[in-house]
Amino acid sequence: MKPEALPRTVLVVGAGGREHALVRALQASPAAPRVLCAPGNAGIAGDATCFPVKADDVPGLVALAREQAVDFVVVGPEVPLSLGLADRLSEAGIAVYGPGARGARLEASKIFTKEILIKYGIPTAAAGIFSDVEPALAYLRARPVPIVVKADGLAAGKGVVVATTPAEAEAAVREMLLEGKFGAGGSQLLIEDCLQGEETSILVVVSGRDYVILPTSQDHKRIGDGDSGPNTGGMGAYSPAEVVTPELLEAIERTIVRPSVEAIASEGIEFCGTLFIGIMLTRDGPKVLEFNTRFGDPETQAVLPRLATDTLALLWAASRGTLRHVRLQVKPVHAICVVVSARGYPESYPTGDPIGLPETLPAGVSVLHAGTRRDGTGRLVTAGGRVLGVTATGTTLREAANRAYSACEAITCPSKYYRRDIGARQLRRQ
Ligand code: AMP
Ligand code: GLY
User: Fold this and answer.
1) Rounded distance, CA 120 to CA 112, Å?
2) Which CATH number does the domain housing residue 303 bear?
């Protein structure tokens, strides 16, 4: 595609590490677009002009895009998508990467997705769907543990309980259905067979029935080393995930990606955006754990630095309906993102702690910001659970990991915490 055909002004919506990675990748385009972000964070503000409009303020974002003559909006998080941001932008004649509210339901309702997966014969765990406690408990009694209880709606990664005892499963059912622990998102739930295996994240750029599969990656969801402790939004990622061999990727494309894209289109959903498929690699083959309808965080931080294809051209092609002409080029490097969080996350954690970043970073390392802000005196301080994403590339995963971890050590912050074993599973296998 000719650079002059690309948008001049791009707005990234969101405030996390994923959005910082998107801002950097879009800025690296040969088309040299003007990149804006709303609301952004302290690190994004160093790279792009930020506007204090919250990511869930749909009218505010549409107004901002109009005022700033934005040609193209790239939406990071799921909440604005499920609130219809992409629909409102399209109505305003502004091109957008990210699905409308109907497409975003594939993430916002696990039941909606499960029904589609079953209808189209796409491999996934067997599940029962419930809105009342008694039938849910009766179903539980007839199933072995471990078993998985999932709130239907958006719960910021916290609506899934992998129960190892019947009591734990029953408690999860009661909390979700009776105590309204997840608000409206928990008024219905799924009880799903527990799948065993290794997980992988497959990010697919989708435009109607056309798609481009991005490089494979693996997230680390638990807070502690060795996959211990509670689930988080994601504590680190690396790419490629070599557990997904070329043969396995071919099977994933044939049994999951292509049928899913076809199913979504057949359901009358015009989907333009990222279909992020969480997959469990079981002994019976790959199975779908979930759909998300946006880029993964922190997978994106590890995947985008590996693209040789211009990210702006790729996402723009998806929104223009020309994705079938794109042949993805990937750099032969390994990438890793180690998330630096505030100690205490995913439960309670301090904010406002000063952050000291190294003056210079080694080649191949970048520090992406997530929960950061400037305080009244201009100091960089923590402002969220996941604070930074230390990202590095290397010719091997070992090299990338060594680079990222030496940068993690050099960062100062009283509440600094990070997992020491991002990528360890793959490093052990090598
Ligand atoms: P989800 O939001 O559906 O991806 O669930 C969050 C996490 O819970 C997944 O990344 C898995 O680690 C775990 N999980 C979800 N569903 C299952 C399942 N059926 N079997 C085993 N683990 C699961
Ligand atoms: N890293 C998992 C997610 O973005 O949901």
Assistant:
1) 13
2) 3.30.470.20
